[in-house]
Automatic annotation (TrEMBL):
<protein>
    <submittedName>
        <fullName>DUF1697 domain-containing protein</fullName>
    </submittedName>
</protein>
<dbReference type="InterPro" id="IPR012545">
    <property type="entry name" value="DUF1697"/>
</dbReference>
<dbReference type="Pfam" id="PF08002">
    <property type="entry name" value="DUF1697"/>
</dbReference>
Length: 180
């Protein structure tokens, strides 16, 4: 099966630095994953595995990274079908006036509770907007993500989840790599 693993918070501002070549080498030596590809330095790993227990795969990748680099990195894994769903169901893609470089996807480690979603809905992020679909958040940053109050940290605190975000260009490239 083909999978995508998203690592949270590596190579950001010089912290938790991991070269993707070194990460590929580490995971290849583990014999845990096959046909490993990485995409850019933000921790996107496309791979195949005979293992189908995603939770166990996440733990094993986390452990290999921790043992090598001695820091915690959250790992989220999605199979190709899950990624296809996310890619094809972005509600903001239908709006013609949106700039593709302002679209992002936020991937949560679990589905947030209805109570926490209600708490998040009370926060005014305008002109930015979001839509939650299970453990995914589609986001649109009207003036760019760097100027927004709508951040991963806010999502994590209000929804009580761990999350990582990717811009739509990265999501699209990963979709292409998963389909090859």
């Amino acid at each position: 099966m083909r999978y995508i693993a998203l690592l949270r918070g590596i190579n950001v501002g010089g912290h938790k630095k991991i070269l993707m070549k070194d990460l590929r080498d580490l995971l290849e030596k583990s014999k845990l994953l096959n046909n490993i590809e990485t995409y850019i330095q933000s921790g996107n790993i496309i791979f195949e595995s005979k293992k189908s227990d995603i939770e166990n795969l996440q733990k094993e990748i986390h452990t290999y990274i921790y043992n090598k680099y001695h820091f915690e990195v959250s790992v989220q894994i999605y199979n190709k079908e899950e990624w296809d769903y996310f890619f094809k169901n972005n509600p903001f893609l239908e709006e013609n006036e949106l700039h593709i470089n302002r679209l992002y996807g936020t991937f949560m480690d679990k589905c947030p509770s209805e109570q926490n979603i209600t708490l998040l809905e009370k926060v005014d992020f305008s002109p930015d907007t979001y839509q939650i679909d299970n453990n995914l958040i589609y986001t649109y940053y009207a003036n760019g993500a760097g100027r927004s109050k709508m951040t991963n940290t806010v999502f994590e605190k209000k929804l009580e989840v761990s999350s990582t975000s990717r811009n739509w260009k990265t999501i699209s490239k990963i979709q292409e790599l998963l389909s090859n």
